[in-house]
Amino acid sequence: xxxxxxxxxxxxxxxxxxxxxxxxxxxxxxxxxxxxxxxxxxxxxxxxxxxxxxxxxxxxxxxxxxxxxxxxxxxxxxxxxxxxxxxxxxxxxxxxxxxxxxxxxxxxxxxxxxxxxxxxxxxxxxxxxxxxxxxxxxxxxxxxxxxxxxxxxxxxxxxxxxxxxxxxxxxxxxxxxxxxxxxxxxxxxxxxxxxxxxxxxxxxxxxxxxx
Length: 211
Prior knowledge:
By secondary structure, this protein is mainly alpha-helical. Helices cover about 70% and strands about 5% of the residues. It is built from nine helices and three strands. The protein has helices at about 1-10, 25-35, 40-50, 70-95, 95-105, 120-135, 140-160, 165-180, 185-205, and strands at about 25, 55, 60-65. The protein has a three-stranded antiparallel sheet. A hairpin with a 3-residue loop joins strand 2 (about 55) and strand 3. Helix 4 crosses helix 7 and helix 4 (about 70-95) runs antiparallel to helix 9 (about 185-205). The longest helix is centred in the middle third of the chain and has 25 residues, at about 70-95.
């Protein structure tokens, strides 16, 4: 479904937790932007609502779903478990090319601190975690994290702008890469899990999310 894929991609790229206002989807505007009739847009919206990404409000329209703070912490916890196992598998299965690809994500931030290029670093950070999931080579883990990713991406993006978290993130990423490169599954899993649970602790303390 072209409309479904396009809409989901558009929602994924929204900064849905970066503002206090809700994101309303304009059916007519989406139809014009995608160059399709409103019928496939409506069909895609129905599927996205069934999957829990959008919600329809009578007489108001369709809005992107934003999770509560408690739900967000639960999602991060599940992600930590799944990515931790992916990292354990990746330590065994990853190639030198895979490791080089992880390092390359952060080449641009060696001279300047991440905070100087926050948007770029946030994108690199998200790509890093997606890469570890893929490197684990377990399709079911990839599939299970796919629907979590929409919210995880938005949560990481907004959290990265708070409390100098980008500096801590950079150091922790370096440790994870070194553990993967050394083929240490135990350490790779532990560092990834601790890194992600650090995000959960940050959200608990500083996160301003729907209650």
